Amino acid sequence: MSSLMTAAEAAKAARGRMTGLRDSKLENLGPELKNIIAGFCDAKSVMNLALSGIVFYDHIKRQERPIIKGILASQIGEDVLRLAAARQETSGWNRIHSPRSDEEDSKCVTRVMDCYLSRTSPSRANTFSMSLGDVAKLQSFHSVILYYADVLSSIALYDAPGPLTEWHAHLPHPINCVSPTEFRRFVKALYIFELVGNLFKKEYMHDEDPNMYVANQEFWGHFAPWEQQQVRCVQTILLRHLSYVVKSPVESNFAIYPGLENLHRNEIAGDLPMMHRVFRGFLGDFQLGRRAWYCGPEDPWFERSPSGFYVSLDLSETLEKFGEAETGPQDTWLYLELKPYMDHRAFHPDEDIHFDCYWCMARWGYVFWSRDKIDWYAPFEMPTTQEMLDLAQDVRVRADAFERAVEDRNNGPCLGHEEY
After folding, report:
1. Lowest mean pLDDT among 50-64, 115-129, 214-228, 295-309
2. Does residue 419 belong to any structural domain of this protein?
């Protein structure tokens, strides 16, 4: 073969030498069956299949879009596809400090939000404009997400309030395991966590970085308030896991700045000295946005009166915007939002209170679990969604009392394990 012959010419020559009799039985299958075979493969396997011969090469080249669509839907999932694509595009943005200005940074962040997170704009992830190589990278990182989702959900399950560890084997099946829906919540929270680390280098102040401050607020506005708390829980539980791995405490003000992928690589390799150095690089550089934490005198979900003297406790609009079919996370979030301000006995039952210490609750992932699981942990304690909305509908509290209650939200008794 001439050294000047191109790959396309070589393929054309090979195609001319082939006959149907020389094709394997696999290659003689119809296009629909070939697509089914490709559907069982990941992106790397599809690329290898394309290199196995000219027949599959031609078929995969013609059917690349449908094949990619099937891989993304079945192996990544529609629920996190946009987040996965956004994470891939922004990977490495904040590995070094950006020389861009505050305004330039905010434009980049806004473009990513418009492309991948907006509910009205079409997403690049939905047009499937990726190549098989792009999808292979997407799947590689997704395997890291699945690893940490499995690890963190297991830790959270065993840290639930009460004697769950001692009696775990005797609990009903839905209580002593992580359901597929609950597991996907951990997956989504980890994607958001990683994306935050890519987009934002620090917690931005309105006076110092006005453009990025607004961009940060807009970013968190794309997610339900209980999803924001899920991100908080992920960080808290991940801290515990890392402390187990390196056999020493890890400070609480870190973020996955070098990324979960690098963390996973060092963890699997057992490179503890490198992990220690990586952790030291985390400290002090970055924290999650304020909206994902109970840490300020303001709460973005409650509406103040025009005079500013009163705060309405009606949260029905928030639930209409973000409500989910399985109400466990939203009910837990709503209950805890209203509890400090409501005098009604529904929010202060006689039974043991399992929802007072926010640090402990973050450790057992209180906003990840189904309503059935929450009711098992705290029977007869939490009203239904509609009961809570009805009780709070016409209630207003003074702004000063509201702010005092917010400040006291972290000062509850620690229940559950003695180590709390």
Report:
1. 115-129
2. no
User: Where residue 139 falls among pLDDT bands split at 50, 70, 90?
Assistant: very high
Q: Could you please report the per-residue DSSP string of 61-72?
A: HHTHHHHHHHHI
Range of the structural domain that residue 372 is part of: 303-407
Residue-by-residue DSSP string for 100-128: S-HHHHHHHHHHHIIIII-SSSPPHHHHT
What φ, ψ does residue 39 adopt, rounded to 5°? Answer: -65, -20
Sign of dihedral through CA atoms 312, 354, 352, 379? positive
**Dihedral angle computed from the Cα positions of residues 360, 366, 367 and 372, in that order, rounded to the nearest 10 degrees:** -170
- Please indicate, yes or no, whether residues 284 and 315 belong to a single structural domain of this protein: no
- Work out the burial of residue 234: count CB atoms within 10 Å of its CB; fewer than 13 is exposed, 13-18 middle, 19 or more buried: buried
What would the pLDDT profile of 146-169 be if each residue is shown by its tens digit? 999 999 999 998 887 754 445 555
Q: Do both 125 and 249 map to the same domain?
A: yes
Q: What is the C-alpha separation between 369 and 38, in angstroms, rounded? A: 35
CA-based nearest residue to 294, from 229, 339, 234, 355: 229
Among 395, 405, 412, 410, smallest CA distance to 297 is for 405
The length of the chain in residues reads 420
Torsions phi, psi for 352 (to 5 deg): -60, 140
> DSSP letter string over 285-297?
T----GGGSS-SS
